[in-house]
Each structure stands twice: as structure tokens, then as C-alpha cells.
Design a protein that fits this description.
Blueprint lengths: L17 E12 L2 E9 L9 E7 L6 E7 L10 E9 L3 E9 L5 E8 L10 E3 L19 E2 L5 E2 L5 E9 L2 E9 L5 E3 L5 E3 L5 E10 L15 E9 L4 E10 L4 E4 L18 E8 L4 E8 L5 H7 L1 E2 L1 E2 L3 E5 L6 E5 L7 E7 L2 E3 L3 E4 L7 E9 L7 E2 L7 H7 L11 E7 L7 E9 L4 E8 L14 E5 L8 E8 L2 E6 L4 E6 L11 E6 L5 E11 L6
Parallel strand pairs: 1-21, 29-31
Antiparallel strand pairs: 1-2, 2-3, 3-4, 5-6, 6-7, 7-8, 9-11, 10-11, 11-12, 12-13, 12-14, 15-16, 16-17, 17-18, 19-20, 20-22, 20-23, 23-24, 25-38, 26-38, 27-37, 28-34, 28-38, 30-31, 30-37, 31-32, 32-33, 34-35, 35-36
Bound molecules: 2,5-dideoxy-2,5-imino-D-mannitol.
Length: 534
């Protein structure tokens, strides 16, 4: 960030200028992490898309390379869209991606590194056999809804499998293809999974998670101590949903345990701005890492003025919660090496109506970790059974609406005098036999410039506040507030564009705007050093 660029990030990945969207084909090769991303080298808006390429040894500092994949063949003449990397036997990476052909049909192409001894994998070659999968009159695949191949997985029968996002009418579909040699692909008679009435499934992701530990698994792993996750990005709402379930290898179908990939209910990686995400298995640290695109909440004219659009979320480790019912995410631990000037508050009772300033950190570029202990449970408001939509509830009960137990949490990117602030907070309600924890990210006062999208976000956090401390961590980065509630059980990412709370004009507070006191058990805050992000 600088005086005329107050919204540029200090440690979230972004290119120097122009448009960026989906993360593509992340991988680790010879100890080097690779990130490709959808990039328009010519403009601040989406358009002429190539795969831009950066590498890192720590997932924090990145160096740029030339675009790895760009239109150069018949089968991708009109665009090189999203895709994934698969590590083939012998450790050889292979990229499957969507190309847009001269008839504007969506087809799937293969590219492999030219030189495997180059750890930066700078040059990629495309097979002359492209496209390898294409819509035709026999398969009845919709040529404008056939894109974003996943990382492929290898079955015990020696056949690779990959899914491609699609739809038929309003039915979202994960079309399955199989191959013995990664070049000749045959469509499976039935999709891996489909769901009625939720439109195009963009950027599907399908991977196993361990039921025993938070370690990641190779995408081809099978066995009894694992479940599978299917995630889709819904084009209609620009939200992502996932389910946890079982991969039936004999039938080659995925069966969710509960819930559905439906746009009104269901689990989300992130309840704010986060889209077109993709995971990969990090063999160096045996973890699965999630990358996701954080799009803008500003107007196109504002984007044109600042000369860029789109950032990537901090990569997150992702694993199955002990309950087996949801995933948990946490920023990769490497990001913590940017922490400096630690400020710690010992436990402190936050009385109703209190605001506590956290000074000594660069509030525009910070990492904050706060936890609360609740004791006055009998005062919790009774939840109305109609309140099933957390975002709606956060919208009705923003940070300025006094409750009993809450709102309490953080005021980030705040101006002196609180003309501007983004409030990330909890409220606790009483249900029949338990307490319900609501987490909100309220952007309604985040900027005096009302041309920005100031939508409030919300999520329920599946924690038991009677027996557990309630934690909240926020990564604050000029125009990004990436928040993790309940140790990563609910994540909400917001884009904000303050006009006063920029650079040295930004302040950080803990607050409690409920009537009842809450115990702030601990607060740690750090200034974040700048990372090398191109
Ligand atoms: N972005 C890509 C598509 C994908 C969409 C095009 C998701 O492949 O479906 O830039 O944001």
C-alpha cells in the first residue's frame, strides 16, 4: 500500500497490476511451490485470459515467471481457462485445463513441462492431440458449460479419473472421464455426482480427508480411515458449497453423508468473498492446502482507477473436523514468520458497552488472535427457530444492535472516532438444549464511500461455548479482513475500502456491545511484515 494505492496488500498474493481471478493448478515440485492463476495481462477486467505463474519456497514470498499457458493452439485459441495439476508416476506434473476453441466451445487440454530438470517448470508444452475431451453430438455435453478439470486420481484398476464441471438445464453436474494413459479419455456413463436446480458447477474439487488426523492425503488415496469431499463453485451465486461423503469406487459415484450442494443451505469453506478455490496435497509437509480467489467489492470504475482487481486468500491448511461433519481451515503456519511487534493483553473483563484499543501494531496490516470465555449463559437471548440463515441474522443484528451476550469481538480497519470500521464479532443465543454461536463480519460501516458493496456476512460456528473458549483470528491487510472463528470452523473473508482508516489512520479495538460482560481471555496482535508478492 502507498498513498495513492491504499488498498494494495502487504502479504496477500496479487500481481503488480491488472485482472486476476481463479487460482489454478497449485503444486509442489522439487521443494518449490507453484501458483498459476487466471490473469488478463491486458486489462483490469476479465477478458483475454492466460495462466500467469509464480513460485515460492515458503508459500509467503513469491517470484513471478512468464505466463505458463496462453492461447497457442486451435483448442485454446479463445482462452486458457481454469484447471488443475496431477502428479503422474515418476513425479511428473501434468496440467489439464479448459481451452476455448475457435467456435467458443469449452474443451479440455493437456500440458506438460518441457524440462523436468527446471524446478521452476517455466515452459509448458501442449500435446498436439488436444483437445482430449470435447462436447459432441453423441455425448450431449453443453459446449458452454464444460470446464475446470480437477486433479485426477488413480484407481486400483490403473485408470485415471477426472471430473469436469457442467450443467444440463438447471442441474449441476460433475462429469467423470477415465483414462489409462492420461491422453485418451472416455466419458463414464454417469456423472460422479449431480444436484438439481443449482446451475453450473464451476471449479469442482474432489479429494480425500483423513478421519484420524489433520494430515492431508494424496488425491488418489483410498481406504477405510478416510472420507471424501466434493466442493463446487456455483456460478449463479458466486458462492462455494461442499459436502463430506463416501466415494463408491465400484460404481464410481460420490454419495454425500448429509446435506447437499445446494445454494440456500449447506456448508461453505468461507461465508464471505471466496471463490473458484482449489486444493492440492503438499507432500513436503503432508498437508492439504486450499487456495481461493477473493474478488473485489468495489465498482469497476474504482478498479480501473486503482489499476488492478482480485487477490488470493492466504493459503489455508484444510482438514476434517473431529466430528466428521465439517472441514476446518487455518492459515498455513509459514505466514506467522511475518509477525512482528507482538502486543499481548492478559485476560480482562469486557463490560457491556466497552471498547478497548489495541495500540502498538500496524492496524492496517496485522494478525490478531482473541479468545473469549463466557459465564453468564442464563442471559443469552432465545433463538427464534425462523433464524436459520446466519447472513440474514447478521444483517438484522449488526454490530450496533445491542444484544445480551454479544455482539463482542474486534473492530478492525477503524478510523479514529469510529466513522469507519469493520466489525467481526460473535453473538450467543440459547436454543432448546444448547447454545448457538453466530459469527458476523459487518461491513456496513467499513467505508464512507457507499459505492462499494457493503454486504454483511454471517455463519454459525459449531462450537460449545460452555466447554470451549471462543476464539477469533483476523488477518487484516489494507482491503482484506480474513477471519477464522472457533479455530477455523467458520471462515469469513471480506473486502473493504476505507477512506479514513488507511495506513497510519487505521486503528484496532476489541469491543463488547452486549449488555452482559464477557471475559476476554487473551489477545495477541502482531504487525505483519510485507511479503514479497511479485
Ligand atoms: N473462471 C474461469 C473458468 C471458471 C471461472 C475463467 C470461475 O474456467 O469456471 O476465467 O471463476
Amino acid at each position: 500500500a502507498s498513498a495513492n494505492q491504499p488498498y494494495r496488500t502487504g502479504f496477500h498474493f496479487q500481481p503488480p497490476k491488472n485482472w486476476m481471478n481463479d487460482p489454478n493448478g497449485p503444486l509442489i515440485y522439487k521443494g518449490i511451490y507453484h501458483l498459476f492463476y487466471q490473469y488478463n495481462p491486458q486489462d483490469v477486467v476479465w477478458g483475454h485470459i492466460v495462466w500467469a505463474h509464480s513460485t515460492s519456497t515458503d508459500l509467503v514470498n513469491w517470484i513471478p515467471h512468464d505466463p505458463a499457458i496462453y492461447p497457442s493452439q486451435q483448442s485454446d485459441m479463445n482462452g486458457t481457462w481454469s484447471g488443475s495439476t496431477t502428479i503422474l508416476p515418476g513425479g511428473k506434473p501434468a496440467i489439464l485445463y479448459t481451452g476455448i476453441d475457435p467456435k467458443n466451445r469449452q474443451v479440455q487440454n493437456l500440458a506438460v513441462p518441457k524440462n523436468l530438470s527446471d524446478p521452476y517448470l517455466r515452459v509448458w508444452v501442449k500435446t498436439p492431440k488436444n483437445p482430449l475431451m470435447a462436447p459432441n453430438s453423441l455425448n450431449q455435453i453443453n459446449s458452454s458449460s464444460f470446464r475446470d478439470p480437477t486433479t485426477a486420481w488413480l484407481g486400483p484398476d490403473g485408470h485415471w479419473r477426472v471430473i469436469i464441471g457442467s450443467k444440463i438445464d438447471r442441474q449441476g453436474k460433475a462429469i467423470l472421464f477415465k483414462s489409462k494413459d492420461f491422453v485418451n479419455w472416455v466419458q463414464s456413463p454417469q456423472p460422479l455426482h449431480s444436484a438439481n436446480d443449482n446451475g453450473m458447477w464451476e471449479c469442482p474439487d474432489f479429494f480425500p480427508v483423513s478421519t484420524k488426523s489433520s494430515y492431508g492425503l494424496d488425491t488418489s488415496a483410498l481406504g477405510s480411515d478416510l472420507k471424501h469431499v466434493l466442493k463446487v463453485s456455483l456460478d449463479d451465486t458466486k458462492h462455494e458449497y461442499y459436502t463430506i461423503g463416501t466415494y463408491d469406487l465400484a460404481k464410481d459415484i460420490y454419495v454425500p453423508d448429509q446435506g447437499s450442494l445446494n445454494s440456500d443451505s449447506g456448508l461453505r469453506y468461507d461465508y464471505g468473498k471466496f471463490y473458484a478455490s482449489k486444493t492440492f496435497f503438499d507432500t513436503a509437509q503432508n498437508r492439504r492446502i486450499l487456495w481461493g480467489w477473493i474478488n473485489e467489492s468495489s465498482s469497476v470504475s474504482a478498479d480501473v482507477k486503482k489499476g488492478w482487481s482480485g487477490v488470493q486468500a492466504v493459503p489455508r491448511k484444510i482438514w476434517l473436523d473431529r466430528s466428521g461433519k465439517q472441514l476446518v481451515q487455518w492459515p498455513v503456519q509459514e505466514i506467522e514468520k511475518l509477525r512482528a511487534n507482538q502486543v499481548t493483553f492478559p485476560s480482562k473483563l469486557l463490560k457491556g458497552g466497552s471498547v478497548l484499543q489495541v495500540s502498538g501494531v500496524t492496524a492496517s496490516q496485522a494478525d490478531v488472535d482473541i479468545s473469549f470465555g463466557i459465564t453468564e449463559f442464563e442471559k443469552a437471548e432465545v433463538i427464534d427457530p425462523k433464524w436459520t440463515n446466519p447472513q440474514e441474522l447478521c444483517n438484522q443484528k449488526g454490530a450496533s444492535v445491542k444484544g445480551n451476550l454479544g455482539p463482542f469481538g474486534l473492530l478492525v480497519l477503524s478510523s479514529k472516532g469510529l466513522k469507519e470500521y469493520t466489525a467481526v464479532f460473535f453473538r450467543i443465543f440459547k436454543a432448546n438444549d444448547k447454545y448457538v454461536v453466530l459469527m458476523c463480519s459487518d461491513q456496513s460501516r467499513s467505508s464512507l464511500d457507499k459505492s462499494n458493496d457493503l454486504t454483511t456476512y454471517g455463519a454459525f460456528v459449531d462450537v460449545d461455548p460452555v466447554h470451549q473458549k471462543l476464539s477469533l483470528r483476523s488477518l487484516i491487510d489494507h482491503s482484506i479482513v480474513e477471519s477464522f472463528g472457533g479455530g477455523g470452523k467458520a471462515c469469513i473473508t471480506a473486502r473493504v475500502y476505507p477512506t479514513l482508516a488507511i495506513d497510519d489512520g487505521a486503528y484496532l479495538y476489541a469491543f463488547n456491545n452486549g449488555t452482559e460482560p464477557v471475559m476476554m481471555e487473551k489477545l495477541d496482535a502482531w504487525s505483519m511484515k510485507k511479503a514479497r508478492i511479485n
